[in-house]
C-alpha cells in the first residue's frame, strides 16, 4: 500500500532525479522500455514492458514476469525498480496500472470491484502470455501488497487451461489478512452501505497512518511520496469494503492454489499481516512452495527498506525464479521436465 495523506515534497522530474531522460536511464540499466495502452473489457489500462538489452529479440529471454502494484501506487515511479531488476536478470517484464490507479481508467483510489480489476489486468497479461514469442516460455505472476491479492484473484480466475500457463507466483507482502488496527470500521461500512452505493466513492475513511508502518527508509519514503500519480486521498468507502470482502474470500480459496509460489513478508509489517502469508503456505496444496519471513523488515520490502535489506529480498527472489526456470523452462522440457527433483520446503 502506498502512503496517502500529506502533500508531496518537492519532486524531481523522475524517481531517479531530473536527468538523464528515460531512454538514456533505461539503457544505463541494461534494459529497453516501452509504454502503451491496452483496452480491456473493463476499461483502458496503462502498461509497461521491460526487456534486457542482452536479448537479441523479445523471445530471447528466460521467461516473462507479469507484475501488479499495490494500493494507491502505479507501475511507474519507484515500483518499476522491481521490474528493472527482473529485466536485468534476463526476464521480459510486463506491468499494468490497476483500474483506478496511475494512468488507467477509473476513479482515483477506487476499487469497488476487485474482480473486475483483476479481470482487466488478466486480459492484458494473457494477451501477451498466449501470443508469440512468450507462449512457450515460463511465465510468472508477481504481486506486491494489495497487488498480491489481485494476483491471486488473477490466478484463480484463469481458466484451467490458462492456469497451467503460470509457471509460478511471487507474492511480496501480499494483502491476505488485514491487521486488526488497520481493518476498516464495520460500523462505518454498514452505515455508508445504507446509502445504497451512493457513498461508495466517498474518500472519508481514516487512513490508519499507513506511512510509518510501510516504509522503513526515510529517504525512500521521500521519493515514494513525491510520485506525481500517487493517490493521496483518504481511503474510499467502496475500496475498503471490497478489500475486507476479498481478503476473507481469498482465505477460503487457498486450497485451490496448486502452482509453485514464493511468498515473502516482513515480520514488522503493520499494513498487511504476515499471518496471511503463513496461512497461504500452510493451506495451499502446491507441492512447490516457499515462505520467507524477514525479521525487522516493514511492509514495503522492495521499495521502502534500506538497500542491504532490499538486496537480500531480491536475491531470494532471483534464486527462486531462476530455479523454477531451470526446472520448468524449455531446457527442462527437452530433458524430460526435471520432475524428479524435490519441491522447495
From TrEMBL:
A Pfam family annotated for this UniProt entry: Hydrolase_4
Region (Disordered), start-end ranges: 326-345
All residue ranges annotated as the Serine aminopeptidase S33 domain in the record: 60-306
InterPro entries named among the record's database cross-references: AB_hydrolase_1, AB_hydrolase_fold, Hydrolase_4, MAG_DAG_Lipase
Gene3D superfamilies named among the record's database cross-references: alpha/beta hydrolase (3.40.50.1820)
Highest taxon above the source species: Eukaryota
Protein's name according to its UniProt entry: Caffeoylshikimate esterase
Organism field: Dichanthelium oligosanthes
The organism's taxonomic lineage, starting at the top: Eukaryota, Viridiplantae, Streptophyta, Embryophyta, Tracheophyta
